[in-house]
Amino acid sequence: MNEKTFKILRYVFWTLLAAVLLWFCFRGVDWQEFWKVIRGSRWGYVLLAMTAGVFSFVFRALRWRLIILPIDSKNKVIDCYDGFTIGRLFNFVIPYFGDFVRCSYVQSRRLTFDKALGTVVLERTWDILMLLVLTVVLLFFRGAQYGSFFIEKMLDPTIARLQPAASRLGIAPGWLIAAVIAIAFLVAWLIYAFIRRRAGVAPKSKGSFLSRLSGFFRGFGQGFVSFLKMKGKGWFLILTVLLWTMFLLMSWFIIKALPTDLGLNAVDALFIMLVGCFAGIVPVPGGFGAFHYLVATALQAIYGIPFETGIIFATLSHESQAVTTILCGLISYTGWAFRHRE
């Protein structure tokens, strides 16, 4: 099997998985009632959620630039913003591919692709850390209410699926997950490098494969540790808090947008936000299907909200942000093309 065939099959597999998840979520929906609720929603709150989504893009671009500045002091905010929003468009086609794409929009003589990728991984590491910290805090104060869902619906099924393979390898499931992520990261980089070379974007490297790989990881490491040289660490933390505040507001505004009062508060919005973040880990194009299923399941399991109502909430939440991403991505691409038209 050649590389092109493998990529096509992989994309088809994840697309089919997204389609199956969407079918499973919507199979019992009363469409007449569904559209009635959608039409009766408070669209002002939906627009507020979309506005929070735009601000999250801005805060992420500002935060990413702080990581880049120790390597390339001439980096511009607009390049970070355009790179991120354009990369998000690619996630609708190939999951996680956007993080590789956005690196190409901030490349310079000093900030090579490998270093840019290191800054992206560092940024994502902070997001994972925030996700885990908020989950631990939520479980510490509301463990009796939310703990069973995270354990029974998310953690236990994941470990159960990985345990047979981990046992055959003689390792813990956690190490297996880490190994899979590392291999996926390496494969994704190799695919991206191959595409860039075939397209004539990147010059052919000299030296052996191992030397090129070693050089890549050296540059990657420089990008990853750039946080240690960052001058605005306080601003970085503030932007991180602002970014996750926007995520929380997206969830809260959609709760308020529904025509019926679900009786949910800000803490409940935090829980739904965290469930949505965990759903984003599933590598389906644009997060379609996985987000809808997990969020609707959480609302049903914790609050007794009908699955159908949960699907309406998930649809408003996900599709409003999908529209925001598409609009911002297209505007950024148009602006970037205009600035680089020569």
Q: Can you walk me through this structure?
A:
- The protein is mostly helical and about 350 residues long.
- The chain has one domain (about 30-340).
- The chain is built from 13 helices and no strands.
- The protein has helices spanning about 5-25, 30-40, 45-70, 75-90, 100-105, 115-170, 175-200, 210-225, 225-230, 235-255, 265-280, 290-305, 305-340.
- Helix 3 (about 45-70) packs across helix 4 (about 75-90) and helix 3 crosses helix 6 (about 115-170).
- Mean pLDDT is about 75; it is low at about 200-205.
What does the secondary structure layout of this molecule look like, with pairings?
Layout: H1 3-26, H2 31-39, H3 43-68, H4 77-91, H5 98-104, H6 113-169, H7 173-198, H8 209-224, H9 226-229, H10 233-257, H11 266-279, H12 290-303, H13 307-339
Helix pairs in contact: 1-12, 3-4, 3-6, 3-10, 3-13, 4-5, 4-13, 5-6, 6-7, 6-8, 6-11, 10-11, 11-12, 12-13
Q: Give me the secondary-structure category.
A: mainly alpha
Total count of domains = 1
Q: Which percent bin holds the helix content?
A: over 70%
Distance between the termini: 40 Å
Radius of gyration from CA coordinates:
21 Å
List its traits.
342 residues; mainly alpha; 13 helices; globular
Q: What does this entry show, briefly?
A:
The protein is mainly α. It has 13 helices and no strands.
